[in-house]
Amino acid sequence: MKKIKASVLAVVLTVLAVVGGVLGLNNVTVKAADPLKLSVDTVDATKGQKSVQVAVNLENPGNLGGLQLEVTWDKEALQATEAVAGDFFLADPVVNTERMAEGFIGYADARSSGKDTSGKVMIITFDVLDAAKVGVNPVNVKVLSAALGDKDATPIPASDIVTTNGGITLPEPGPLKVSVDTVEATQGQKGVEVAVNVENPGNLAGLQFEVTWNKEALKATNAVAGDFKLAAPEVNTERMAEGFIGYADAHETGVDASGRAVIITFDVLNAAQLGANPVEVKVTSAADGDAQAITKIETVQGAVNVKESVCNHPNVKDSDYKVTKEPTYTEEGIAEAVCPDCGQTLTRPVDKLVCEHKNIKDSDYVVVKQPTLSEEGLEEATCPDCGQKVTRPIDKLERPSDSNENIVVDGDADIKVDVPSGVADNNLTKEEQEAILNNGADTTVKVDVNKVDENNVPKADKDAIQAVPDIKVAAFIDIKVTLQVEGFDVKTITQTASKIAFTVQIPADLLVVPEGYVREFNIVRVHNGIAEMLNPTRNGDQLSFASDKFSTYAIVYSDKVATTPDEPTTPTPDDNKPSAPQTGDTLPIALFVLMLAGIVGIAVTSKKRA
Questions:
Q1: Which of 301, 304, 441, 568 has the smallest number of Cβ neighbours within 10 A?
Q2: CA–CA separation, 161 and 58 (whole Å)
Q3: CA–CA distance, 222 with 218 (Å, rounded to integer)
Q4: pLDDT tens for each residue of 412-451
Q5: CA separation for the pair 113, 61 (Å, rounded)
Q6: What contacts 169, CB < 8 A, 6 or more positions away?
Q7: 0.90 exceeded by the pTM?
Q8: How far apart are CA 433 and CA 455, in angstroms?
C-alpha cells in the first residue's frame, strides 16, 4: 500500500497543473521573497552512540505545493534505525524507508494549494558505528523536484532552492593521558593503594610503561592489573623491591574506554619524608589500531603525600585516667593518662562538684520582689559553699477573710434585700483589689431600693415595660448597686457574678380582686433595653425574686377569669445561668489609688479591716 502511495505522490508533482485546473486553484503565482531552503542538522556524538536524531528542515516554503527529495549517508559509518515525517507537511507525506539499509531515504508530498509555514520535513534516527571517523560524517539532502501551489503547478527552478548538508560530528580525541594518583598517608601506614590511569585512549592498541619510586620511603607489596585492558596485560614485579614495575599490553584492534591500568599497594616506611614522596610513570611505547606510533602522550606524575602520624589513642581506658587536680564547686578538675601506643599524656576535665546548698538558712534570704495579689514575690540568698545566688518564690498575697465588704441597704422599707458577701471582690479588678489592700481600706456594697413615680422612670425603660402584653403596672422600682471605698462611691455595678435576693410587699389595694377573677402578679426587669418577666415566688402578700442585673423594675399584674380554685403557683427561675460580672464606668486606676491614699485614716461608719 505504501509503495503505491509513494508512486502516486511522485506522479502528482508532474501532473499538479492538470489537477489544479480541475479543482479551480488560484491563478496567481506566489513566489517567496527568500529562496526555498532545505538543510540537514549537524549534531555532535561519540563513536558507538545510539539513537542520534538528525532532522531535515524546510525554510521559506513560500507557496510550496509539491516536494520530492532524497537523503543519503555513509552506511559504513552511520546506521539509520528509523525515519518519520516531521511537523512540516503539505498533505500526506510519504517517507520511503525501503532502501534505508543502503543509506537512502526518499520523501514525497503534494497538495492542491501552497503552504508557507517552515518546519521539519523528516527526522532520522542513527546509530554511530565504530567505523565512523573523527569529524563530520555527512548526511546529504538532494531535492528531486519542487513545485508551486498554483493552478499550473509551476516547477521551482533548482537555482531558487538552497540545500545545506549536515551530519554527525565525532570530536577530535584528546591526547593519550597516563597519570598516577596522589594520595594521603602517614608514616608507618600500610596498604596504601596508588593507581596508574589511562585516559583518552582513542584507538589505542598497544601500551608499555614503567613506574618508579623511592624504595627507602615506600615499599611496594603488591601490583595488579586494573580494569583497563587491551588484551591480557602483563605486570612485571621482578624488580619491585628495587622501586620499579613494568607494564605491557597489546591488542590487534584499538579501544577507547578509559580506566586504571595497574594498582600498586605500598607500605609507608618511617624514613618517608613529610610531604610528597613521588611515584612516577614513563611511557616507553604506544601504538594505535593501525600499528602507528602514538606521539601525543601526556603523563601526570603522582605521589604519596605523607603527613605526621596521628595517634587516636585507641588503647587508653577510662581506668587509666588519674585525677591530678580535684574539682571544686566553682572549678573543674583535671585527670591525666598516658597513651601506651604513642606515649602522649592525655588530659580530660573532671566535672565541678554539685552543690546542694545545704548550708543556706532561712534567715539568709532577702526579699528582692514583694508579692502581690496577682503575682508571687521572690527572695534571694548566696550559698556560703559555692557562692551561687539561690532564689525561691514568695506566695501571692491573699485577701484576709475579715476584709470582705460591708453590706448597706437603703431605700424603701417595704422591700427586703439579701446581699451575699464577695460582691466587691467579684467586681474589682486585680489592680483595684491590690490598691485597697495596700492602703488598708475597706469596701462597702450599698444597695438602694426605691419605688419611683412613673414620671421619674426613663422613658425607654417605661416603654419597654408597658410593651409587655396583658399586664398592668402597679409600681416602678429603681434598684441601684454602688461599690464604695471608705464611704466614697467608686463604681456603679449594673451586673454581679452572684444574685441578690429581694422580697417586695404587694400594695394592699391590689389584693382586692373583682369577683370571678384571679389576679396574677409578676416582676418585670428592664436591662440594656430588654424587658424580662422574672416570675417571682408569691407568699401571701409578698413577692420574692433574685437578680444579678440592676436598673428599672416594675410590679405588674393581670386579671384572668377564675376557672379553678386558686392554687399556689410554682415560680419559674428567671435565670439559672451564671452571668459574667459587668461594671459601669470605673474611675481610672491611677485616680482610684490617689483617692485611696487621701482617704485612709478618715473616720467612716463601715468597719475597717483588722
A1: 568
A2: 11
A3: 12
A4: 777 888 887 766 666 666 667 666 766 666 778 888 888 8
A5: 12
A6: 42, 43, 44, 45, 135, 136, 137
A7: no
A8: 39
